[in-house]
Amino acid sequence: MKFRIGPNGVHLFDRLSGLNILVDELRPKEAIWSTAPRQVSIALTNVCDLHCAYCYAPKHKASLHTDQVLGWLKELDTEGCLGIGFGGGEPTLHPDFVNICKRAAGETQLAVTFTTHGHRLTPQLAERLKGSIHFVRISVDGVGRTYEEQRGKQFASLLRGIESIATLAPFGINVVVNERTVAELDALSELAQEVGASELLLLPQQATSTVASMDGVVSRALQGWVSNYVGKVRLAVSEAGASGLPTCDPLPDERGLQAYAHIDASGMLRASSYSPACVKIEDAGALSALKRLRNTFEIKRETQS
Ligand code: SF4
Q1: Which positions fall inside the Radical SAM core domain (predicted)?
Q2: Do residues 210 and 54 touch, judged by C-beta distance below 8 A?
Q3: Domains present along the chain, CATH in parentheses
Q4: Has residue 16 got a pLDDT over 80?
Q5: The dihedral of CA 150, 151, 152, 158: what is its sign?
Q6: Ligand 1 cavity residues, CB under 6 Å
Q7: Which of 264, 262, 261 is nearest to 63 (CA)?
């Protein structure tokens, strides 16, 4: 079991079972808190073979190198990060994806997860990844025709991908909530239960250059759906767009860059994939970049006050 020290206590985590234990009787001094964010997402590549309108991934060509990624992971692991989530673009399109996952699982204690559109997850790829992945997130925006119109891919092909993923690791379903998909949340929760997903993650749509963020009507419909939810699959919601929803945060004092950071496919460290503020990860490493990004936010706060 790995442990992490933070403002809410000592956090124990087992990447194989997903078990989290928070020893909150202990309140360690700030000087010994873990310095890495609890979770870090890494866009391995900007490349994707789909063209979703609400995609926020940058469209310029960029990919990270295996050794560069592994170096950052080892630093983050040592400094108390618990898990890493590979994304993109479509992470399975990174030419060294399998090797990166194997090395991340073998050379660190981090939980290794990735988010995928699911269409490239053949039984062969799932077999090669077995043992190196602790959780998979699959993007499913609506069912049947809605899905096909949103993602431009056959729903049947997605279901085949989900079958392969189910043989690989525990998995969850991600849904971008917008005016189309909000009406299909019942169907999505039924699907999640049928295919054996352990989580349904709601991602209220954020504005991109082509779409607006979720509006008030959709937001109220989502709130109504969540408060009446009686499904068996656990619900989760992204922090962006969670306002108004009943959420439970066991680590309320672990905020901002203590809780989460994102590294994009150009090697820039950000507070989230949407955040415009960023710093380049130089040869000094990810933790040094994290310090610079924290300083940037401090200076901004001071000048605003
Ligand atoms: S599958 Fe994901 S990365 Fe690819 S275009 Fe759609 S939202 Fe963007």
Answers
A1: 34-249
A2: yes
A3: 36-268 (3.20.20.70)
A4: yes
A5: negative
A6: 48, 50-52, 55, 57, 88-90, 117, 139
A7: 264
- Please tell me the distance from the alpha carbon of residue 2 to that of residue 20, in angstroms, as a whole number: 10
Distance between CA atoms of residues 28 and 165, nearest Å: 39
CA of 42 to the centre of ligand 1 (A): 15
Handedness of CA 153, 191, 111, 28 (dihedral sign): positive
Is residue 4 within 8 Å of residue 21, measured between CB atoms?
A: no
Tens-digit pLDDT profile for residues 234-250: 999 988 888 888 888 89
Q: Which residues of 68-99 are buried (b: 16+ CB within 10 A; e: fewer)?
A: ebbebbbbbbeebbbbbbbbbbbbbbbebbee
SS3 43: strand
Helix (H, G, I), strand (E, B) or coil at 114: strand
Comparing 300 with 275, which gets the higher pLDDT?
A: 275
> Helices 155-168 and 144-151: crossing angle, nearest 10°?
90
Q: List the beta bridge partners of residue 96.
A: none
Is 209 a residue whose pLDDT tops 80?
no
**Of the candidates 48, 125, 126, 53, the residue with the CA atom closest to the CA atom of residue 87:** 48
Atom of ligand 1 nearest to the CA of 151: 6
Contacts 24+ apart (CB under 8 A), 145-152: 146/180, 146/181, 146/184, 149/180, 150/52, 150/53, 150/176, 150/180, 150/181, 151/50, 151/52, 151/117, 152/50, 152/51, 152/52
Q: Which residues pair with 262 in a beta bridge?
A: 41, 270
List the beta bridge partners of residue 201. 174, 236
Ligand 1 center to 187 CA (angstroms) = 22
CA of 297 to the centre of ligand 1 (A): 29
Paired strand residues for 204: 177
